[in-house]
Amino acid sequence: MPHVPLRPKLLTALAEGYGLRDLRADLVAGLTVAIVALPLSMAIAIASGVGPERGLVTAIVGGALVSAFGGSRFQIGGPAGAFIVLVAACVMQTGVSGLVLATLLSGVMLALLGVLRLGGYIRFMPYPVTVGFTTGIGVIILASQFKDMLGLSLPGGEPGPILPKIAALWGARGTASPMAIAVALATIALIVGLKRFAPRLPSLLIAVALVTLITALAGLPVETIASKFGELPRFLPAPALPDLSWDKVSTALPWALSFTLLGAIESLLSAMVADGMSGGQHRSDMELVAQGIANIGSALFGGICVTGTIARTATNVRAGARSPIAGIAHSVILLATMMVAAPLAGSIPLAALAGLLGIVAWNMIERHEFAALTRASRGDALVLWVTFLVVTFRDLAEGIVLGFALGGLVFIRHMAELAQLREGSAPAADNPEAQDPDVLRYRLHGMVFFGSVARLGTILTRIAQRPRVVEIDVAEVSFIDSTGVQMIATLAKQLQRRGGALVIVNARPDIVQALNAYGLAQAGVDILPAPL
Q1: What is the Cα–Cα distance from 472 to 348, expressed in whole angstroms?
Q2: Distance between CA 330 and CA 383 in Å, rounded?
Q3: Residue range 52-69: mean pLDDT, rounded
């Protein structure tokens, strides 16, 4: 992989020349993104089992640090819907203090991944895994919003796993509030209508603001942010380190590992989306370092997990951003809004935020891609469905790891099937046995590695039964590993015991080097390089 310096895109953008016109464009883009991020950050925090103020803190602190130090020109950081399930489960097991510590540890791990130059490798994620994961997250988030959308009362608390959650919600169906349902449906209808008939307007903020205004003026009996969480603070809290005792760290560490895996994938995926929309190219290692710094900063101020957010990043690009200053501006605008309008935000109905997140979750469910991959091939369908089912019904990190491993096995099988051994070859001109009719000639194709050795080895064993000279043309071998070399060495030994010999012809320099590295020439095998 090419070496890319650990240099923030902000410095690159400023070095290229930054004028008043660029600043004006960035401020407009930052305002646009802040309008989207304001209700979304609070909704994600509430759905994650923490107070809405922690979502705002995460967007303000984490968003500013991602833009200041990031490797993407357009990335917008903040709380993400993909983390809702993990964060909620972490809060249930370790409490908010454990969540903050896990966020801090995750930040350290993400920064180390970037410093160790592992960002390029994390991007090697099979597309069926990405679709299965995203769709599973969408289903989980949608299920988690039914309680507030329907205004249900659950005396024992809402279960985390999806099947017990649905059972509990169904059992509490008699407590549904018609007013909460009306508020949620009105919010959804406004968002959908505005997106269709006025796509340039900030549909999320307008829908939530209008529903909140009507609810407050009519005095509708629905639960609000203030009635559940109290009044929102107007200022950021003072920074403080969480409890770093070994007991706390050991409890938070597994959650930190899950946050790191998900955060790295989500952030780099978001940066790739920005590249596709803008024609730019992000620096993956620098992006991971920035995500690490942002998570550490968020944790110090009591925030939750920070990651690159696809929807807000795409909004930033579409709004005409020129540099990471747009992301910093979005954080400053959020802070100013928090200082001025915190009491007003307390009047927002929880059903309205649930309706907003319901729309976000529905958009995350990649229905068309899911159907296309299911029809594409058995391998892709298997990886897709396993990832989706494990993510939805068991665990997010396990779903990613299992899907990635299964995708690797499908790839290995496919590459193994492409490896072939055919009769006939184009003998090297300097081969003295080229015209000998007693020489058996074969041509080897594809990748000769541990995945293809079992099938190829069976064929070569049959060939070795006759004591003749066997010539193998490797001109079309793209790669050979130690297992493949060992298979060829075994063939040579079998032929030698029966009075035969093995000759390798038309070997490219890298294949010659691999064969010699494992001592094949010392084993009595003639290796003839390809003619120049």
Answers
A1: 74
A2: 38
A3: 96
Alpha-carbon gap, residue 205 to 199, rounded angstroms: 13
N- to C-terminal Cα separation, the chain:
28
Both tokens of 248, joined, read 């706390």
The answer to whether 292 and 110 are in contact (CB under 8 A) is yes
Q: Read off the pLDDT of each residue in 499-518 and give the average, rounded to a whole number.
A: 86
pLDDT at 415 over 50: yes
Q: How far is CA 89 from CA 92, 108, 243, in A?
A: 5, 21, 20
- CA distances 144 to 24, 255, 366, 467, 504, Å, are 40, 20, 18, 70, 62
Per the structure block, which two tokens stand in for 249? 């760290």
Q: Are 103 and 48 in contact (CB under 8 A)?
A: no
Task: Specify the amino acid at residue 462.
Answer: R
The answer to whether residues 414 and 376 touch, using CB atoms and an 8 Å cutoff, is no
Q: How is the beta sheet containing 420-423 ordered, strand by strand?
A: 420-423, 439-448, 469-480, 501-507, 526-529
Q: What is the DSSP string of 215-231?
A: HHHHT----BHHHHH-S
The Cα-based distances of 286 to 138, 292, 313, 467 in angstroms read 29, 10, 17, 59
Q: Which residues contact 374 (CB under 8 A, 6 or more apart)?
A: 381, 384, 385
List the one residue out of 68, 70, 74, 44 whose CA is nearest residue 56.
44
pTM: 0.79
For 222, how many CA atoms within 13 A lie in the half-sphere containing its CB? 35
Q: pLDDT tens digits for 123-175?
A: 677 889 888 888 888 888 888 889 889 998 887 777 878 888 889 889 888 99
DSSP state of 238: P
- The token pair at 117 is 């130059």
Q: Are strands 77-78 and 420-423 parallel, antiparallel or unpaired?
A: unpaired
> Burial of 117 by CB count in 10 Å (0-12 exposed, 13-18 middle, 19+ buried)?
middle
Instruction: Give the dihedral sign, CA 82/83/89/91.
Output: negative
**Spatial separation of the C-alpha atoms in residues 493 and 483, rounded to whole Å:** 15
> β-strands 307-308, 77-78: how paired?
antiparallel
As a whole number of angstroms, the distance between CA 24 and CA 452 comes to 58
Least reliable range by pLDDT among 54-63, 138-147, 175-184: 138-147
Do 473 and 527 contact (CB within 8 A), yes or no?
no
